[in-house]
Amino acid sequence: MIMLREKIEKLIKDIVKKDVQLEHPTDSKFGDYSTNVAMKAKVDPEKIIKELKDNPLFEKVVKAGPGFINFFLSQKALQEELLEILEQKDNYGQLEIGNNKKVQVEFISANPTGPLTVANARGGPFGDVLANVLNKAGFKTEKAYYVNDAGMQILALGNSVLKNKESKYQGEYIDQLNQENKEKDPYKVGQWAAKKIIKDLIQKTTDKLKIKYNEWIFESDLYKSNKVDKTLDFLREKGLIFEKDKAEWFKSSKFGDERDRVVIKSDKQKTYLAGDIALHSYKFKDKKFDKVINICGADHHGDIPGLMAGVEAIGYKDKLEIILLQFVTILDKGEKKKMSKRAGLYVTMDELIDKVGSDVVRFFFLQKSHNTHLNFDLALAQEQSNKNPVFYVQYAHARICSILKKAEDVILSKAKDLDSSGFALRMTKTELNLIKKLTKFPEIIEDTANDYQVQRLPSYSLELANAFHKFYEQCRVLDEKNKELKESRINLIQATKIVLKNTLELMGISAPEKM
RNA sequence: GCGCCCAUAGCUCAGUGGAUAGAGCGCUUCCUUGCGGAGGAAGAAGUCGUAGGUUCAAAUCCUACUGGGCGUACCA
What we know:
Elements: H1 4-16, E1 33-35, H2 37-40, H3 45-52, E2 58-64, E3 68-73, H4 75-88, E4 102-106, H5 123-136, E5 140-147, H6 152-162, H7 172-180, H8 186-208, E6 215-218, H9 219-224, H10 227-237, E7 241-244, E8 247-250, E9 261-264, H11 272-286, E10 291-297, H12 304-313, E11 320-325, E12 328-332, E13 335-338, H13 349-356, H14 358-366, E14 374-376, H15 378-385, H16 389-406, H17 429-439, H18 441-451, H19 456-474, H20 483-507
Parallel strand pairs: 4-5, 4-10, 5-6, 10-11, 12-14
Antiparallel strand pairs: 1-3, 2-3, 7-8, 8-9, 12-13
Helix pairs in contact: 1-3, 4-17, 4-20, 5-14, 6-8, 10-11, 11-12, 13-14, 16-19, 16-20, 17-19, 17-20, 19-20
The structure holds one RNA strand.
């Protein structure tokens, strides 16, 4: 489908012979779309206006301010778009900009050494929704969790479960594992414990968050299948591995890294980076992803140059993108504190979900940009969850369902029998505003697929719900005296329901018919 | 020391080159005899951390500074 914005951009592009970016003016008196392209392309705005002012898409096209052209959409154009929504239903907003390219989004991937906290699970809602949006934009998307069940932290976990001198982690789950454990070798204990933690703690939490991963990739499997050795051999053949101080180094400085990195330590143990390059070889060579997006905590940013160099060395330059999520700080009685498992200062994701529900958690986290340092106050989150904006959005959906239920006796016009004459009535400003919000949906998909600013979705859902609540207040739908008006408005709220539900589904938030 | 991120309303956060800077919560006032009031309308509240610079135009880009977070391993 071609969205409204794209149609207008093309019209202008044909005139100025230059790419055009339309924007929504902050004030509606400046129209529905505006552009400063006339100034940028040094084209007389009058020329553009003259060619477009009679186009049926517009009610008027006017010159304004310092080089702006403002476009006011016609009622007809909006009604045509409304028909599009009613015809396409859940498919509305499905774009093809991804060209079916295979994309993997990897997120959370917290170490299997303990429960997910509100800090390390921050990537859950973010990654899940980003993948959903990319899918809607026409990519073939998969979601993955990489489990680091190899290496030193597994040994530390084993020692913790055994409660020996090398113990590092503690908590009820460690006590529990200690009770169940029968092994003695710390590393084996750690591997066993990691599997248990993934299954009994982490997967339980991601399930509660309604995240469905396509794949859980275990680091230990990369070792078992010799993927790590094969990847290192590949690098060795390319002359990118050298020995120094009894360790083996990857020549990452050749690819823009500030220094080289160890891949095999002097004790012959492989480092995290060795596994990580093998992981990406698996992603690109074996699974043939065209693009991989990793979402990880900001504390990992020091590892990026090494990994990027590795990905380039195995032949997949520029195919990996990394999004860093900034840290979550806990607000405890107004005081900022760093989350710390040792100090017992952390809030588990499970605890939060149990207190406020998955819908609230997802909305709350989605609203924040990935590079915002998030201040989190559990007490406040609980207190405010009853007033959480997510209910405002869900309430709009429930209200529509309620009206539609009451209207069941009305013979609804089938979308396919309609043309825009089905809405030939003169619509009120409130109704037109609602349609304008609806037509913004595909734009949200496109923009978010391009810049990954996922917080656009909750913010859009609020705008849309607000436009509907205003409409509800001012326009009675079930008007018994005016059958045409009633039908027109029923169609309008059906379209609203479609887009609201679509938006909520992308966010992984339920769209209740009753509340 | 060097590198990355951040600083916007009382609080939590959007806005990242355009027109009078927005939302939710909190605060003040009004709207229920009409499809769900978990709603609607109106209002108070901001030197966009500070100082320079670029630009017709800066919260947004550049530089310096201040304050905070993170990183800088043969840990992951």
